[in-house]
Amino acid sequence: MARDPLISANTLQQQQPVPLYLQIKRMIMQKIYSGEWGANHNIPSEKELTNMFDVSRMTVNRALRELTAQGVLVRVQGVGTFVSENKGESALMSVRNIADEIKSLNHEHKVEVILLEKCFATAELAASFDIMAGQVVFHSMIVHYDNDVPVQLEDRFVNSMVAPEYLNQDFKKQTPYTYLTAVAPLTEGEHIVEAVLATEEEAAWLQILQVEPCLQIRRKTWSHQSMVTSARLLYPGSRYRLEGHFYS
Question: Which of 19, 86, 122, 123 has the fewest CB atoms lying closer than 10 Å?
Fold first, then answer.
């Protein structure tokens, strides 16, 4: 099979230091979301992708395994790997707007903006965003209320190159989710879920005792090849539950 100019070793090298398997995932996702690879499309084999990217088979295998686990691809033993018909649905949970969740209960959504600032990317944050250390990023901290009860602390960093007007938004009128999905449509997301305790300051914002368990979701989102945001979402355990829909 001839090399595809959109998925080549040269492209991977240009996107370092993002892990190679993640770069491969993003390129496959780009072809799917662009419509070039539609539902039930038979994608190149593991061996062909290994040759295209000039990487180890283990690297390609990890990318395909994760996309399969996410419901993006379907692998049929002895036949091949195909684009899933349900590629737009998350196998674990979707990225949703908390304002919509609260309003769906016929409750009032309100926010308190604690912090909205420009800052400079640390080495760790720069590696996460695939940008240079010291580059400008935006930082916001917002408490979301269900009626008058705080239910989520949103601590978010945003890629200033993707959403340059982020600091100029009125987040009492629209959530960061609403603004960001408008300027950079979501094509990929990652969640890490943990049980944690809030800091003293966070407990005060959420109006809970510091000993109360909280649910923490670390969320990263991408729009095509660009990482848009890295957010830490903290929920009081007594006020939130995680729900997911699974598809076979």
Answer: 123
- Give 26: exposed, middle or buried? Use CB within 10 Å, 0-12, 13-18, 19+: buried
Backbone angles phi and psi of 244, in degrees to 5:
-145, 155
Q: Poorest-confidence range of 94-103, 109-118, 121-130, 213-222?
A: 94-103
Total Cβ atoms within 10 A of residue 182? 10
What's the rounded mean pLDDT across residues 15-29?
76
List helix spans (H) across the chain. Answer: 9-14, 20-33, 46-53, 57-69, 98-103, 123-129, 176-183, 200-206
Q: Please say if the pLDDT value at position 2 is more than 80.
A: no
Q: Which residues are registered as beta bridge partners of 214?
A: 196, 236
Which of 146, 152, 141, 143 minimizes the C-alpha distance to 119?
141
Measured CA to CA in angstroms, residue 224 lies from 80, 152, 162 at distances of 25, 28, 11
Residue whose token pair is 């094509």: 187
Tell me if the pTM is above 0.90.
no
